[in-house]
Amino acid sequence: MSNLIVQNRRPELATFTAPLSGLFGAMFGFVVGNVFGNPWQGALAGVIFGAALAVVLHMAPISRRNGRLGTIAICLIAGLVIGGVGGAVGGAIIGAVLSWFVYWLDSGDYRAGSPIYATSLQVLWDNTFLLICGLIFFFLVAPLVPVMWLSFNAEDFFTFTPEMLSFDPEGYSLKHYRSFFGTEGNPLLGLILGFGAGVALAVVLRVMSGPREVLGWVAPIISLTLIGLVVGKLWGVGGAEWMTPLKNSLIIAPIATVLSVSFGTLAAIGLSQSHVPGRRAIMAILISPMIVPLIISATGMFFFYAPLGNWLEATFGLNQSFVGFVKVILAHAALGIPFVIITVTATLVGFDRSLTRAAANMGADPVTTFFRVQMPLILPGVISGGLFAFITSFDEVVVVLFVGSAQQQTLPWQMFTGLREQISPTILAAATILVTISILLLATVEMLRRRSERLRGMSPS
Amino acid sequence: MKLTKTLLASTALTVAAGGAIAEGHMAGDMTLVSWGGAYQQSQINAYATPYSENTGVTITWDESSAEAVAKLRAMNEAGNITWDVVDVVAADALRLCDEGLAMEIDPDEQLAPAPDGTSAEDDFGDLLVGDCFIPQIVYSTTFGYRTDMVPEGVEAPNDICDVFDLETYPGMRSLEKRPINNVEWALLCDGVAKEDVYDVLATEEGQEQALAKLDTIKDSVIWWSAGADTPQLLADGEVFIGSTYNGRLFSAIVEQNQPIGMMWDAQVFDLDGWIIPTGLSPEREARALDFVYFATDTQRLADQAKYISYGPARLSSAPLVGQHETLGIDMAPHMPTDPENAKNTFLYNYEFWADYRDDIDAKFQAWLAQ
User: Fold this and answer.
1) pLDDT per residue as tens digits for the range B193-206
2) Which residues in chain A touch residue B228, judged by CB atoms under 8 angstroms apart?
3) Which of A34, A284, B82, B347 could form a disulfide with A405 if both were Cys (CB 3.0 to 4.6 A apart)?
4) Helix, strand, or coil here: B323?
5) What's this model's pTM, rounded to 2 decimal places?
6) Contact B143, B189 (CB under 8 A)
7) Domains of chain B, start order
8) Residue A334 to residues A159, A341, A345: CA-CA distances in angstroms?
9) B232–A320: do the CB atoms touch at under 8 Å?
10) Which helix or strand (DSSP H or E) is residue B85 part of?
11) Interface ipTM
12) CA-to-CA distance for A412 and A393, rounded, in angstroms?
């Protein structure tokens, strides 16, 4: 098939490019005007600037690159004059986006994503569709940006101070990170060990699977460094306000996950056998914690586990704190089981039953068959179910508030009370650290998964 | 920090020595319930750290005072009390006491006498408002305003009625999302004499009158429910003036250097203190009583004022109030009880609100939703 090179027609300036650029400029003008208290004047200025920019870039005999650099420079200087360093950064961003938009329209690139025979309305829809996708991502990610930004605030309030907005180093500090980590423990040692382990893992990955993207180097190093930091910190943990809850979360979540995964997988395998009587009813009961409002389950669990705990304490002489952990872990395991059942059941649909019969035919007992034939094949479902179960326990605040006592205070609990009682930005530092760790952990897990697929000769999917 | 800890510990040792004989019969760990934030930190510094250094007791904190009544009821029903000593406001202590969820205390038997030998009963005086309540601090609900948002050529607000004066002081206000305090202030500024406020409030018309006065500023009010909200709103410049606990404003002004001024007029005093839940095992109860004896003695209450601007509940502690632990400023002028600040004050009317709270609450919430 020969490549057909289509020269897009350059659209009309007066009826298309200039008005649309004006409209786009108005959006930025509105936002900037809002900062200075008169959004509508800003919008008007934005219309004029956007349209004028379209005219100039359309007419001027300069290359695309120089045109964009010029626009960025002009907006940067204008921003600097109006709003200092912060204004300059904002101006440069506006200049870059606006000039990109003008060229995108003016050169006809906006038709690039649609087939050549598409009508104007179809092109409009294609681009609207892309815009909607972009907005969905924006609404998912944008709320995290101010959280991360504010976590470097030098003040004890959730406030963008003038110093922060003008990128004055005075307005920033790491004090909320310091108060998150407290003063005890040995984070430096953990950091060094974690960094070493991360480098080693990255090198091993590199040797075993050849060259890879930058992320393949960075993700294992940073994630293990951070894990080392946290572990080092927890080593000698005392009464630190945030470290004890973190430690409790790291005790409760993994054990609850192991329980959910074991029971959930067994249940899913059992329930996928056609001869089990009443399996729909059993399934419904097992999945109910996911459907019943959490606050109802939590109230029920409170009254269910209280006498159970009292009985354990009285009969076996166990101490209160240990029994508390047992109660919270069991409650969280019950919440995690439905996720495991659902993901494992879904993977079992694609599992070929004749494989188990073949294994039996060759003399393997059911347990061997399970671990050597069935388990490896349904492992992806088990792992993703386990991840969901872990996140459920790690993020859970309602049940632990009811079932746990202060000795089992978890990280979400601490965040909840911290937010209600003191509104301290330490919570933002905690959130930033958690988000970073989970992104890097998931990236590392993904790297490892791709590596094993490559080793098994499968193509990465 | 280290030095002060050891100093505190050594003074504490002499006090605790008396109780040491009974040590064997007491639990080795305890859970204290408080409000979190700077207030809990002041309790940790002044009471808990010295106490655990003396006795080796492990202390766990639970920041659940806000829902202490509900949680204690649930724990009692489930027969599993996990709290040993609970910090609550006086009104909650009275409710818990009435329901039999808090233990009755004999001040002269179970609390420390003043250093000059005055009995605890006389030392706490009128502040012993219930049979179960062990007073700790006096705090006030009062106003803070943005000093840089006061209109040009106008005096800074210094009268409670300035809150209701949108002409002179435009801008948003923040008020607590409950009738208590707000309705009293509204009536005061609607021409009711201070001594008649509760008589008027007891009538249907009086309640209507208070809500009608609040109606005049309703569109300019942000309602808060946590003590940290108003300082945050003031720091953001979202409100011009707002009510909150005086200690929160102290920390925003003095420790965070925010451009905020205090408006003490018609501040409402309230009490905060400990209760011990009923139904503890004998070892835990002995431990709780031992802690409370230590934590509410004259020196400990005075120590707490080094960290937060709430007034100690004992008369004998007042002369011992010194300077802020880290900033070195005199704490006395920041206390709500300082004569300069306490020219026009209210005391939370426990009896009135015990009788009328549910009724006025319902009306207030309905009014809010209109």
Assistant:
1) 988 999 999 999 99
2) 421-423
3) B82
4) strand
5) 0.77
6) no
7) 2-132+276-333 (3.40.190.10), 139-270+339-369 (3.40.190.10)
8) 40, 11, 17
9) no
10) strand B85-89
11) 0.75
12) 10
